Amino acid sequence: MAISQQSITINLADKQTLHLRKIFDEQQNGPIVFFMHGAVENGKIFYTHSNKGLAPFLAEHGYRCYVADLRGRGESKPVISKSAAYGQTEAILEDIPAFINKIEQLEGSKPDYWVAHSWGGVLMNSVFARFPHYIDDVQACVYFGSKRSLFNNHPKKLLQANFIWYFMAPLLTKKHGYLPAKRLKWGSDDETQKSHYQSMQWAKKKPWVDSDDNFDYAKALRSLHLPPTLHIAAVKDKALAQPVDIQRFIDESGPGIQQMRIYGRRHGHRIDYDHINMLTHPIARKEQFNDLLQWFKSHPCSLA
User: Which of 3, 56, 128, 168 is deepest in the core (most CB within 10 A)?
Assistant: First the structure.
């Protein structure tokens, strides 16, 4: 078994490019999986160049994996700067559809499964709300630590969200013209001023409404059945996605099939996972990664 990786470039307007990482076994031709990272992140949350992580794990099992870097993040160019005027609206309306279109061009069909970490799940459900025709092509989704608004009141949430994300981050974005999260070690990548503002408003329990055109995502989803979605929570994820936060996201994401599983020692697992190592810890292969595989198998596509 030899897992290969390839970088694919998608050209946008104004000399912007999107990066898509294909991870696959050349000897297998299984279902297609699309991966979306969260805020202050890039696609590397799902893989390393030495084939560690969730995407290489799935490639070992025959899946053809496509890991996205949103505009300005990861290997998408140019990197975020004070001149970057795009935000999460552009991610929903332009970037993610461009990724799906490129995958369809390369493979002859759209992705069978969607996987997200953190804010990536909010972006994916927002895309389903805007483009409900995608729903019929997706057999199932798995979201790691995805929530929209924060309802928990843990002290770590008060520090990381209330003080850092709601208070310090706006001051820094105003000073620099963007949020230098990577330099501050707040994440693996930066955020534009617009993307930070928009995500902050939704995290503050504001309505799930687009600040650009007032599109009401929650209203749209109430009449849609999204693909069956497995939500993965971690017992040490105290600030960013406690079960109460994930459940609220489930509740506002329509009447489709959704399940939540919590990962930690008291739930029968080998370690207590947190917001990041739920995807990066070596033991995850034997626990949540394997459960994800079973979730996919329980919602098969024609190739599975």
Answer: 128
Tokens 């994440």 found at: 187
Say which amino acid occupies 198. Q
- Cis check for the bond before 78: say yes or no (omega within 30 of 0): yes
Separation CA 173–CA 182 (nearest Å):
13
Long-range CB pairs of 278-287, under 8 A, 24+ apart, other chains included:
278/144, 278/145, 278/232, 278/234, 278/237, 279/45, 279/46, 279/53, 279/54, 279/117, 279/144, 280/45, 280/53, 282/52, 284/54, 285/57, 287/263
Question: Identity (one letter) of the amino acid at 35?
Answer: F
For the chain, the distance separating the N- and C-terminal CA atoms, rounded to the nearest angstrom, is 19
The gap from C-alpha 57 to its chain's centroid, in whole angstroms, comes to 17
Tokens at residue 265, please? 């020692």
pLDDT in single tens digits along all 304 residues of the chain: 699 999 999 999 889 999 999 999 999 999 999 999 999 999 999 999 999 999 999 999 999 999 999 999 999 999 999 999 999 999 999 999 999 999 999 999 999 999 999 999 999 999 999 999 999 999 999 999 999 999 999 999 999 999 999 999 999 999 999 999 999 999 999 999 999 999 999 999 999 999 999 999 999 999 999 999 999 999 999 999 999 999 999 999 999 999 999 999 999 999 999 999 999 999 999 999 999 999 999 999 875 4
Give the phi and the psi of residue 193 in degrees, each rounded to 5: -60, -40
Report how far apart, in Å, the C-alpha atoms of 187 and of each of 16, 132, 279 are. Answer: 22, 31, 15
Q: Are strands 64-69 and 178-179 parallel, antiparallel or unpaired?
A: unpaired
DSSP codes joined into one string, 66-97: EEEE-TTSTTSBSPP-TT----HHHIIIIIHH
Phi first, then psi: what are they for 185, rounded to 5°? 60, 35
Tokens at 295, concatenated: 């979730």
